[in-house]
Amino acid sequence: MDSTDLSSGRVESALRGGVTKERILDAAEHLFAEHGFAATSLRKITAAAQVNLASVNYHFRSKESLIVAVLIRKMSPINARRIELLDAAEKRAGEGPLMLEDVLDAFVGPVLRARQEGGEASNFPKLLGRVYTEPGDWVARIFPQALGEVAARFRVAFLKALPASEFVDAMWSMHFAIGSLAHYLAAPALLSFLLQEEAATLDVEVVQARLVRFMAGGMRALAAKKEAAG
Amino acid sequence: MDSTDLSSGRVESALRGGVTKERILDAAEHLFAEHGFAATSLRKITAAAQVNLASVNYHFRSKESLIVAVLIRKMSPINARRIELLDAAEKRAGEGPLMLEDVLDAFVGPVLRARQEGGEASNFPKLLGRVYTEPGDWVARIFPQALGEVAARFRVAFLKALPASEFVDAMWSMHFAIGSLAHYLAAPALLSFLLQEEAATLDVEVVQARLVRFMAGGMRALAAKKEAAG
DNA sequence: GTTTAAATCATACGACCGTTTGAATTGCCT
DNA sequence: AGGCAATTCAAACGGTCGTATGATTTAAAC
Q1: How far is A15 from chain B (nearest CA, A)?
Q2: CB within 8 A of A193, min separation 6: which ones?
Q3: Predicted TM-score of the model (pTM)
Q4: Would an 8 Å CB–CB cutoff place A28 in contact with chain B?
């Protein structure tokens, strides 16, 4: 039985229990980010994890379930941190206006910093950027589970920070902003191509400052749509 | 020999020559956009095109070459139209300032309108949005061929339309802006999720107006980075 | 020490993959 | 009519895929 099922009352094995599962998740996360979901076979994952092939279908039901498990495992702390930062920003604002930049920082900060969270160098951000554009229906099916609460919280936060905008406009600018983030995460090759010989800054603080400034400017311009119509 | 090789002096067959090749490209374009590159097999393509399996490797050397052919075929007229519109915008501006919105319209307009260009309904925009995030090195290798001239022209155009910005900042905002576009094209599911019960506008004019407004606001905010520092 | 369930293992299944081959067919040319 | 290159075709190649099976090993419970 799966070691996460504790209903039997059996104590989890300290030596090996859970180790294999974690090794699979780690290897899968790394390979998915590097080569995509379809191009990464279970054999490559189990070989990298130094684990038997059948253990994937034992611990997870299928490859698709493994993908979902990889995403949920990494998204959970990121989303928790997002809400944490949003809570702080809202408390800081009090009755006064909620700063758009603070909301955006709460949204993108935890993702950009997810690289060093795992302890070792993981390229999960690249994987996350890949998720949105992955074909198939399964990715849309995990939206509610993966970012249901986050979406709900940031929906109202963005509406509060963009008082001039209507709901639909705010959602569109949220969508565009997420696009900027996802594209930065997933397509570093294009940035290198655009910059030509210039080197791309990898410092998280600088990147976040640029990204948030771009997002805020775009969202405010879209929110002010009504007034500037002509 | 491939029908596009006219060096033999042989006149291309009017009845069948070129027909198979086009059928393959059409079917491949549709299936690639719908299910991605890796998940679309040559057998599914040839079945949809009602063409023999081996004809893919006859007309194109390999699956990867077919992918490149699909992309180039559709990108060429789009890029030509982009440069056409940019020429018009620059001529219109004359010695005066180049409007950022005009440059952005020239960049995104042809892509958003690519749906109806093929005559029938094609979902090439979705395919294009997929390209940037596709794993593997081959996509980075076709950047120069696919948008080399376009990138060069728009690099200088954006620099001219954003006089306050430095080169690096302009390239970053260009990257973010492309991200918004690509994400809109590739991930309509997320927009639907964000909008909840609200319906997403599909009218090209309205979408383009929103997108350009967002991009322009973001790029200007990033260009003004120096002055607003603190 | 025996029992028992969880976990790992080697192995195999059927399906599908991209590509190749060589023969059959087509249709323009002389 | 005959030649010939371009094209289409059925069939097969070797590989890899996700998943399933049944035996084996592990270690906690009694």
Answers
A1: 37
A2: B140, B143, B144, B151
A3: 0.87
A4: no
